[in-house]
Amino acid sequence: MKEKNLDFDLVINRKNTNSLKYDFALRRGYPEDVLPMWVADMDFKTSSFVQEAIEKANSLGVYGYTETDEEYYETVKTWMHEQYGWELESQRWLIKTPGVVFSLGAAVQACSEPGDGVIILQPVYYPFSEIITDNERSLVISNLLDVRNENGERRYTIDFNDFENKIIRNNVKIFILSNPHNPGGVVWTEEELRRIGDICLKHKVIVISDEIHADFIWKGRHHVFVNLDKRFREITVTCTSPTKTFNIAGLQISNIIIPDNTLRKKFKKKVDAFGYSQANLFGICACVAAYRYGGEWLSEVKKYIRSNVEYTKKYIEEKLPGIEMFVPEGTYLVWLDFKGTGLGDEEINRRLIHESKLWLDAGNIFGDAGKGFQRINVACPRSILAEALERIRAGFEIKSGERK
Predict the structure, then answer these.
(1) pLDDT tens readout for residues 64-74
(2) Report field, pTM of the whole predicted structure over 0.90
(3) How many Å apart are CA 149 and CA 329, to the nearest integer?
(4) How many CB atoms sit inside 10 A of residue 140's CB?
(5) Residue 389 phi/psi, 5° resolution?
(6) pLDDT higher than threshold 50 for residue 395
């Protein structure tokens, strides 16, 4: 069998399909004609093997309760081994859920009590803070350090002293880790992750590691946090999913992996209390097809996205003075610093939305450390990306390297 869906230049009209990305601008307070580049939702057809697996499941016309067997576990186990060198030693480690964000909420409830501190490294994926406050836990923030690497490119690093002091002073029970980091695109090094793990072990802090973007690495390699040290098993909930990797978020399937028996029982009890049991029929068959047969598609889409990242970098350096890009080490989300324009957040947002007609994720929703930034999703056909960048240029009136 041959992969059929490798035309990533193909522009697919997703309007009037109940697409969150394309059909809900007005409801979200944006002009109807904005170009959406915000949510982490690719504009590419998924692997043809995934599409065919769903079509086969659909052909029966019966959509009853669906459970998984040994085949599902072995498929996930093989993927984790081949991609990351991570050995899942028992089927019991694996718990299926409808999504990573759902699982973050379940883990927060399972591993802490109202009022307990939950720490995050900002700027970071904004549902982290929402889950903490919505569950009446105390939000504790340690801001990342904005530094330049050996190539002069900006990168976030962790202020370990601040991180540990915040844990001590705020009765922190949980740390939610974004690995790789969203929105900064950081692929955390083994040294960084081990140091974080040692601090959390020392202070008995549970680590919820969101590793949903792990398959998109441009520099270095992805380290599964829990796999770096057997001691980390007793404190770690690892959240994985094929949904970002294969653009199947609407199928709602995630694989939560918890080696420690006590921690796993707490998490599973909370999921059961929510009333969730069997996973989505199409999510199950899509996950198996993606992990078994989607390798060629993933390899090719990564080449395409990486080329888009390089195109964005070149365009910004040559045509968008005052805007600086964090060159991502991973993910297909690009973090743009607009502070060099001399404009405040309100004016930056106004120009992007009403003059550029562009819908990005404003940096302030990722925390105060994100003020002056915008996040753009570059996992789209090149023609759409080029139009988006041209819209930024037009909206900010940039010509010949000067601002009018």
Answers:
(1) 999 998 999 99
(2) yes
(3) 12
(4) 20
(5) -70, -35
(6) yes
